[in-house]
């Protein structure tokens, strides 16, 4: 299935359009997956970084009270850190801290997928052309071009992380477990 999804993203003339279409079709099914381990297995085994990035983006957009219109960027990931909540669909019998842990896991996965997409498709226009048209650009090893919304400072990151930690501590009503601290450190 993962190989077929990866090929489906690539066979279209525009990987951006095909990944959006596929992600829109798959997303409702992800919301209905009952167990975290099953959701993580699906997302971790996804061969198409672009498709995984789109699915995680949809997941976080869905969890925001006020969805953003920003294009996918580091700034958008910081927006998700500040505005996302634990998805109600995923609130099974697990402890509250484990749901926050899952959210942090998906934020890290989104960041890694976005970084992989930026390396694989260094220029945004690569995502609007077919694989055969991209071959000469890939051979030239074009360097990733930062978008304005990818230019974030360490202070931006620190402020958003501090606000997120405060929000999570308030929701949990207790000190953060060590596992959460580790994930926060890794994300930062």
Automatic annotation (TrEMBL):
One function term, GO molecular function aspect: SUMO polymer binding
TM segment ranges: none
Protein name per the record: SIMC1 protein
Provenance organism: Lanius ludovicianus (Loggerhead shrike)
Gene encoding the protein: Simc1
């Amino acid at each position: 299935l993962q190989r077929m999804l990866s090929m489906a993203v690539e066979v279209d003339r525009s990987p951006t359009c095909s990944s959006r279409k596929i992600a829109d079709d798959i997303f409702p099914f992800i919301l209905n997956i009952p167990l975290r381990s099953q959701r993580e297995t699906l997302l971790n085994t996804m061969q198409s970084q672009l498709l995984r990035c789109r699915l995680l983006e949809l997941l976080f957009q869905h969890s925001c009270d006020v969805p953003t219109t920003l294009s996918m960027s580091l700034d958008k990931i910081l927006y998700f850190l500040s505005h996302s909540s634990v998805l109600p669909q995923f609130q099974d019998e697990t402890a509250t801290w484990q749901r926050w842990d899952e959210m942090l896991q998906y934020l890290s996965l989104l960041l890694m997928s976005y970084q992989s997409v930026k390396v694989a498709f260094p220029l945004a226009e690569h995502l609007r052309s077919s694989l055969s048209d991209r071959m000469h650009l890939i051979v030239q090893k074009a360097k990733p071009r930062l978008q304005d919304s990818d230019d974030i400072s360490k202070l931006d990151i620190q402020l958003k992380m501090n606000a997120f930690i405060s929000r999570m501590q308030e929701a949990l009503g207790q000190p953060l477990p060590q596992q959460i601290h580790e994930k926060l450190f890794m994300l930062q």
